[in-house]
Amino acid sequence: MLIDQTMVCEASRLLEGVPAGYRGHISDEDWRWHYDEGHHINWLPSVEERLLHLSTLLDAILLYDQVYVLDSGKPADEASLTLRRVLFERGILTPLDTRTLALPVSNELTKFLANASADREEELWHTSPGYVGENIRATLAHEQHHGSDERRTFLSALRSEVEGSPIHSGSLFGHADELRADPLGTLGFELLRQIDRFDSGALIGGVSHLRTFVYWRTAAHLGLPFIPSLRRLPTYHLLTNHIRNSVQERVYSAVGEAFHCSVSEVYENEQPLPLYLPPALSLFLDHLRANGNIASAIDDLRRSHRKLRRDLASFQHAMGGSATLRDARDAQRRLTAALTTLRAEANGAPPHGAIDQVLDIVPAAVRAAANPLDVSGYSDTLVRRPAEWIRSWWVRRPIRSAFVLSDRLLGLSQYDQLLEAATGQRCTSEGIAWLHTRYGRCLALYGGETRLPAPASPTRPPLTTSDDTSA
To answer: Is residue 217 within 8 Å of residue 108, measured between CB atoms?
Structure first.
């Protein structure tokens, strides 16, 4: 599992009692709740947002033996972030060496941005797809800052925790239809336009969008599921759901032919499994309140739920070794049985989320394409692959967990007293309402379910023909 560096740092800062609004390089309280009553939203971290990051991080380390972050940048206050240090020392959190990905990821994004800005180059005064791509390559390759002041600033932003609001720019509200119809192209040109302007707000917005794209494509190249931080979630969700909704009809048909089965069987194989989890946040905070030791609280959480991680790892291994969809369904049944005990512990409560497999743009399938991120042509590329390749790719796709974000936002209030007793930090009803309202406006623009990230959400029942499947 690949997670956002920001998530780890903000969760750690919550436990250290770092003032709200500080992100390792900014400590201006005047920026804490900056809200433009027009369409532009910008805010810095609050206790409530950090608590949501801690909850998501704890679920990730409860589910996965290994959690990764990119190694291309370090927070300025890393020495004071105890939780982050403990996770590294325990080998739970591992930095990914991005140097081998520098060329493939930067080349992919350079081609994509060139297509996104085709016939609109005159709107960009200083920035080009090649300039942005070269800075991505330099960042992932760990090259030292060099060149002009602007380039050094750009590189520094890419390597830091620069993260704007989910909307970044009010101009997107005027392009809502284009955003829904072509999310990749619209966001690609928007980030170029913001970087081109280069004033502080625009640079933060452009780089924040760009970092989301880099995380997304890095995870795809590594074959890892990705859990984004709260600010990246709407963009990431929009991109991945657009891909799934655009390609799944033809892909399901091709997969059915490759496995010699009906499309309805493929559809059945794709249904998310309900996920019931122990209350990781409550368990962690309760242990921290009693013992005051972050390392001990992490060790206890991991030790108590070792079997759950083994079950999930066994499921991934069994899925990857499936020769037929029947084999894959048998693996799903075994995991469902393993999760039954957790459902009983939940005392009839609804599931926390779901487990499914990623349906994304596979780098190996589009390496030679003029635009590797062309969603409209991706299904054509996939269905032309040999049946053996399709079968192998289908069962080996990364397993990911998905959580309903709106439920988590509304559920933050139940941790108020426990959080204060364990850390001295307060999670207020006003702060939760503020975050939920402002974040709702972001989701209204990007559309879709409020999931982290979202599993498939079919809109009609499965069909059995090879040319008309569920979308």
So the answer is: yes
